What does this fold into?
Amino acid sequence: MDKDRHTIILKALQSAVGEENIEDSPAVMMAYHRDWLPPGILNPILPEFVVLPNGTEQTQKVIRICNRYKVPFIPLGSSQWSITTAPNRPGTLMIDSKRMNRILDIDEKNMYAVIEPYVTMAQIHAEANKRGLYLGSPEASSQASAMAGHVFQGMWGVGHRLGVGHRNILAMEWVLPHGEVLRTGSWAANYKTPFFGEGPGIDLRGMLRGLAGALGGMGMVTKMAIKLHPYPGPKEFPCEGIVPNHTSTLPPDRFQWYIIKYPTLEKAAHAMYEISRAEIGGVLQKWPTVYYNWWWANSNQEYWETWKEGIWQKHCKHAVAVCLWGFTSATQLAYEKRVLEDIIEETGGKPIPQEVFDKWVPRTANNWIRDTNGSRMMRPSGTFLALRLPFDTFNSSIWECKEGGRWVDKFTPPILDCDGPDWIASFDMGHFGSAETDFPVEKDPADLGDLMQRLMGMMKEDLSHQIEGGVGPFLGGVYHSMAGKVFYNYGELLKGIKKAMDPNIVSNPPQNYPIEQEE
Amino acid sequence: MVKGKKMVLPKDPRYLKYPIDQPFDPRWTAWNCSRCSCCKFIDSWRVKSWKYARICPQHTRYRFDAFSAQGKCDLALAVIDGKMKWGDDPTIKDILFRCTMCGGCDAMDKKIRDGEVLKLQKWMRAEYVKAMGVLPEHRPLVDSVKNYDNVWLQPRARRNSWAKGMEIKDLTKEKAEVLLFAGCTYGLSEELKETITNVATILKNCKVNFGILGTKEVCCGSPVEKIGVESEFERVAKNNIETFNKIGVKTVVTPCAGCFGTIGLEYDKVTIQKKFEVLHITELFERLMSGGKLKFKKEVPLKVTWHDPCHQGRLSRPYLPGKDIEGVYEPPRNILKAIPGIELYEMERIKEYAWCCGGGGGVFTAFKDFAQWTALERLEEAKDTGAQAIATSCPWCESNLGNAIKGMEEKIALYSLTDLMAKAL
It folds into this structure.
């Protein structure tokens, strides 16, 4: 950006947020040039400015300035595991939400919280737990922005019981890409009661959501009301030990883990159907064996030595993990135990050996209730990548896992050993399932660059035909434009929304549809 | 593993086993930051409230991500890869030095990856100082260590003034098993010298065979090590190890957390082998309690919360990937619990995830506003426990917290642990 233009924009921003809340020094810009995805690592572009607005009004001023000068902007949450937040246009402005870090309200009776973007999941957990309430634990880690978690995937550990994240959004105060403020849900009519998420008109949450969220391409939400749910656990999350050797044990009369091994993926999925039909459990997952190690290992050495021993591969392949929650009472848990044990018997499952259960559960399992500890996925090789993400049924997930496995085999190496990355998660009591293909990759620029090219080829191949029973591979951001007739040209709808809401194409281009300013 | 194929493992052996025994590689440490931001918050399993969820004072105060371990990884990479120079941007000075070097980021980071981000930050400071010189704000401190062997511009002759009339062995002339190393601040501060005299009194009462170095005691080097003046650190470290070895003590004990962490851990960087164990005074007191030599008789009716000094806690033990971030966490708590009348109230952030007092890393000397801001957050946390007093065992923590208390409307009492012990004897 030329110096005069930089100075003009800087002055405008200073008047919007105050001099102390804007930075343009190179050393500070350096800290915002990447997220954890390869593009930001391989082709770094420094942003031009970072601003810290303190709320909706200042955010609106900043976004209006961006529109006036056609400056691309990227909204940030807590920056944990953020994706598509690395600048990919010169002259980008980062909207850092650190001054919007408050829990504005927790309504115990009506079970909701009102939050700002820099509030983490862990912070809400802590405050909600004190009041006997709870919200999901995100796949990434609970240091992630709760708001970002709700507008992105929302693939929570407890999604089986609480539903995928975005279904818990009640109301939003949202600065649109062109700078207008939109209030959704009940806030559209009555600012005081964030109760009815769909609002008096059409449900506008859809503009921000879809499968993977708008990824910063639809402006910035500055305030959100989210559902909280009853929680039968203690007011303080139980944790023993010193980092990194923590253990956690929740009251056994209210929380009970089971890890049940099946001979095939199909049988595991069948058991998940049966568990869902019985409407029991708080957590229902089928994790790939690599997850057991990612989540559990406290060091790289422990990770690789355990992996080479093959403990998880031997005992947890095709295992279904269930955490029963006595939401209402210990009696409920006792009932659910009886039901689950019947299902295990009927479906031919077998509990994993006790010593393996004892090795894994106290150190790791409750991650799925407070913090999935997902950042550990970077540990053994510096990074990891995810291939595909269909949301549909358990059955479609089986197919997807096998397809994902085929691609992983094909690209190994540079993909590292991971024993078939077949993750199936249940949401809404089994009303839909998701599959994800995550795998470790060495954080080596040559490997990553090559692999990204090959994955893009795979993506195109996938999009050339409709995937059996599923909604397809990871469709977010720029990939919407790749979804053609096979996917009902839905991309055209998104393109229209993007053009209408973001006429100057400033909201994190090329998200949420890749059109450029000159178009 | 793909059927019929060999297991595919990382090519870089450092991913298979952290290279703890190899020279530190700053680039590799910086490169492997995944921007997970775990360095900015306490371990999420330990978050007990919205209010006290953060670990990094610098990042909390200055907000921009450059002021975090993650941001410093980005800056280090830029400099190592030749994209920036230390002198390119005046903000670099603030990024590097407006940091208490408390190691909270480092401890939290170690939960999720193998790495030493605090070591990286020390490397950055040292490289900055080599290129840009010592910070003007730190110059008097460095000159003081060079010229007077202490950080407070005091003549060497005052070093043992606290021991006057106490009849303590001078180990440059006599022998003893234990060296009591007072440290610059306890030894020279009029405000804090009661602590060191109480320590000596308790040791004498317990009949510990100990002595001091008198006017020959030299700064441990902690402040110069933290502010990137490596040469001066090496000088005092070598001097001290040689002296301690020469006087033949089995144990060096100090009531100063900074001296303890430095002599116990940072001296390992110096090639001379230590022939003595290093204890914090609370460890020795706990041993004396266990052996029945130290008993508390008088009641001290007080609700107390304990502040873990960083150098007594997470910064006091060598890094062993996958192992606990050990520290002297329990001895001071056990001592407090043993004093009749004292009720221990824990703060939300303790032990390896404790919030820093704000006094470390050269911040107390150079950036008093930030030091005080950090202390005020800790004091607020202490008051929120319902305790009447906050106790600790580090002169930097005591000084910085003490200064902050002076400006508070609703104050909380501050005690050195040893002073509470003295009341109970």
User: Anything to note?
Assistant: Chain B touches chain A through 65 residues (CB under 8 Å).
